[in-house]
Each structure stands twice: as structure tokens, then as C-alpha cells.
Design a protein that fits this description.
Elements lengths: L1 H7 L2 H56 L1 H37 L8 H43 L4
Helix pairs in contact: 2-3, 2-4, 3-4
Amino acid sequence: MSDFINDLTSLHFWLAVIFVGVTLEVIGHLLGKGVDRFLSRSFRWWRSKAVARREKRQTLVVELRADTHKQIQQMLRVAFNFGLGLIGASAGVALLSPVATSIILQGQSKLTDSVATQTKIICLVASSFTILAGFACFGLALRGAGLLVEAYDKSAPHD
């Protein structure tokens, strides 16, 4: 403890503290400018992409209002994506059934343990990706349905 108190009273200690403080301040200032510049560019890019997406969506809505053929195409796209979503989610659940069966019947399988473990892992990974793809298709269907709803709501006369 006395060494620490002696260090507090020495000139070298306080010069080192001042040097480290100034160095950290300069580094922080330089890094802060770089980080600010990077974040402002990133947000500007993100904002421009969001504006472009919004404009594209509005263009699609206007086209859907004007053209019945495009409305039918959009309805078919929604139905197709919804069907793919159902198939994907169902297939994912079906791929989970061997895993569930092997867990329920542990020890009664004629497969060796390593092959059974590999089969479980493959089924789990495949089912996860299949279910994820199914939900992605549901998302596409909902987005397309949202376009149709927006086009219909703004073109229909409100009583």
C-alpha cells in the first residue's frame, strides 16, 4: 500500500496519467469521426433503399388498380406462395417424424448409434430448413396479399 501512495506523489505517475488521458482523447476523437461517418453513410444507404422500396410498392399498387390481368397474376402468385408454404411446413414436420420416432423407440432401432445420431441430425437440419422455407413462402404470400388489399382498398368506392 505504501508503494501505491509513493506512486501517487511522484511526478512520473502524473505525467503518465496525463499522457494516457490525452492519447485516449485523441484516439476517441479520431475513431468517433470515423464511426460517425460510417454510420451516416449506412443510414443514408438504408434510407434510400427504403424510399426506393416504397416507390416500387406504390408503382405496383397503381399498376394493380389499373389492370385486372395483373390483379389475377398477383392472386395466382399469392396462392402459389401460400401453397408452397403449406407444402414446406408440412414436409418439415414430416421430416421431424423419424426423429420423434427414434427418440420414442430408443434402443429398439436396428441402426448403430452413430448412424442413428447422424440420421437424427440430418432430419433435424433438413426439417428446419424446410420449415423456414415454408414460412418464407408464407411471408411472400402475405406481402403479395397486402399489395392486393392496398390496391383494392384505395380503388373501391367507400360508402
